[in-house]
Amino acid sequence: MSGGRKTKMTELNVKKLKEVFALDGSVEEACMYAEISRTTYYNWINANPEEKEKINTLRQRPVLAARQRAVQGVKESYSNAMDYLTRKKAKEFNRTQHVDITTNDESINKKEDSQAVDDFHRKLVENRNKRNLDKAKQEGEL
To answer: 68-117: per-residue pLDDT in tens?
Structure first.
């Protein structure tokens, strides 16, 4: 055997790695918990591609659980539904609207313009929310 330490990859180490990855922990966190080096981890994972696939699957479980909870929340309240749509369909449901106004007339009062844009934006949001609420009521979701 060449010099250096023997790789310490036991069934217990693998179990500990999987426990951390099931929580979507990082490689660094998993190695710390399993008391192995990252080099040992990468050597092991590269030598065991089937374990790499299992770990990738484990790391997706918390994401899927969170997604499932988010969808349940959508069913529970209009507010949750709108928050979800704001993230998933930002172009259509984002509460932030960008309005570009250009003019060559320097006599326009910037403070009044700003207030007008704010009022316009508020009315857009109110109208969009009202339409979404009316649609949800029509579809029996509320």
So the answer is: 887 788 778 878 777 777 777 777 777 665 566 666 655 555 556 677 77
Residue 140, Ramachandran bin (φ over 0: left; ψ between -120 and 50: alpha; else beta): left
Q: How far is residue 14 CA from its own chain's centroid?
A: 28
Which ranges of 5-109 would DSSP assign to H, the alpha helix? 11-21, 27-34, 38-47, 49-76, 78-88, 90-93
**What CA–CA distances, in Å, run from 63 to 52, 73, 76?**
18, 15, 20
pTM above 0.85, yes or no: no
- List the domain boundaries for the chain: 8-62, 92-142
